[in-house]
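FW: tagging you since you asked about this chain on Friday. Here's the raw sequence from the shared folder, copied in full. Didn't touch anything.
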Amino acid sequence: MPLALDSAFGEVLGDNVLAILAYAGVGLILFVVGFYAVDLATPGRLVSVIRHDRNPNASLLAAAGMAAVGVIVSASIYATDAALTEGLLATAVYGLVGIVAQIVAMIVFNLLIGLKIKDLCHEERLQPGTWMLAVTYLMIGLVTALAVI
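HL: got it, structure written out here
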């Protein structure tokens, strides 16, 4: 006897797959916005410094910034319990506000501690200050994400 799926189950499954794709689309847009926001907060063009100069300091700072954006976007999705359209809109707004808060906090923190990101991004070897900034960026992202929730 062939396995028959309940039509209500199939409808719910289809709706959930569409919701996943929609949230993934919003998340991708926020990641792109987040990358360019991190790029603006970092002296020089990150893509160029990473791709052409193969700089490990710029790579680590960009990766930490993107991981922080990922945490913020994930929290934004988690915080929305509304219907799909409202949830997508709330995720976009929370995500953008979180990205802005992260970038402002990164700039302020960098000014306070006095590390020059531009100098770090021109060093050929991975620097201890880069590790500290990378972890700081992740923590700022986590704090921002928890504020969203």
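FW: The chain has a mean pLDDT of 84.
HL: agreed, and DSSP finds six helices and no strands in the chain.
FW: great, closing this out.
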